[in-house]
Amino acid sequence: MINLKRIIEQQGSEQLYDLGRDFSNFRRTMDGTSEQIKNKFEQAIGAKLNGKRIRARASRGYKQYVKDYEFDVTNVSIDDYYDNFVIVAKDNATPKPKEYFLKPGFKIQILGPATGQPSPQKGGKPQETSTASPIQPKENPNAAQHEPMAQAPAGQTPSETSAVKEGDNDHYDAYSLDDIGKDSKPWLLPLLLKPETIIRDFTKKIGWMKDVGDGKSIAMYDIVIPINALNTKLTPEILRDLLRRSGTINTNYELVKMEPNETDDEWNIRIKKSKTNI
Asked: Are residues 126 and 214 in the same domain?
């Protein structure tokens, strides 16, 4: 015979521990600590370089050709590019501000105060356009020179990385917030509770793009969507279907990553756009 009293006593003695709550608090603490550390070193580096004319080993975009550049520094930031931190120096000496991705393995020459003059160097292969005198590296220069090609952003194959060809447009690597908004609008608006929502509010940083040859180009960008802004329970299958239907005869969208951020109740989404010029 089943002893009902004993069953009730056993159930009453059970204790539940919410592991998810403590783990969320841990992640929140770690994120806050990382942001404090990043801000501390941004200020330390900026104190040395902001408002100065420098000559440094750098590239004109994420994972692109590296060579020596001379330019004014108006601001320095430490940015997260696809889970990889990089040091970016901004130069506002031209109508269209430029970004230089500094190579930490090389010493920077501080030439003096900012002059307000644009950099004399343009983007391109180092052997074709570099005119600055070399800077003595602290590490193996060959290893540092080829470091940008060692990794490709998530969702990209090594063959695509090796196919990079720089042209005259030295902003080829940046995919603007406006472009991301235009690309996202067709598939994102049907998911939102408020259609009048500004799509750009979901993008925290610029994307990345390049030509891969034969009239083809690819772009990669991240979008953060609060779960409470959605009108439906979003799944990878639903999102892939919307991306597929948003494509055209020469443009294709692909879901690279879709991860929940339980701490902030939002989706971290990465999109890859492939386009063929016809």
From this structure: no
Residue 73 DSSP class: -
238-242 — which CB contacts under 8 Å span 24+ positions? 239/187, 239/269, 242/187, 242/190, 242/191
User: Do 52 and 110 touch, CB atoms closer than 8 A?
Assistant: yes
Q: What is the CATH number of the domain that holds 183?
A: 3.30.980
Say how many domains are in the chain: 2
Q: Which long-range contacts (CB under 8 A, 24 or more apart) does 204-208 make?
A: 205/79, 205/80, 206/174, 206/175, 206/176, 206/177, 206/180, 207/174, 207/175, 207/176, 207/179, 207/180, 208/61, 208/62, 208/81, 208/82, 208/153, 208/173, 208/174, 208/175
Asked whether residue 178 falls in the same domain as residue 136, the answer is no
Cα separation of 164 and 212, whole Å?
Answer: 6
Q: What are phi and psi of 255, to 5 degrees?
A: -80, 115
> CA-CA distance, 160 to 217, in Å (whole number)?
10
For the cut 80, the answer to whether the pLDDT of residue 204 exceeds it is: no
Structure tokens at 107: 């010493």
Domain encompassing residue 70 = 37-147
DSSP 163: T
Average pLDDT over residues 42-68: 90
Range with the poorest average pLDDT among 35-49, 80-94, 123-137: 123-137
- Torsional sign, CA 84, 86, 90, 94: negative
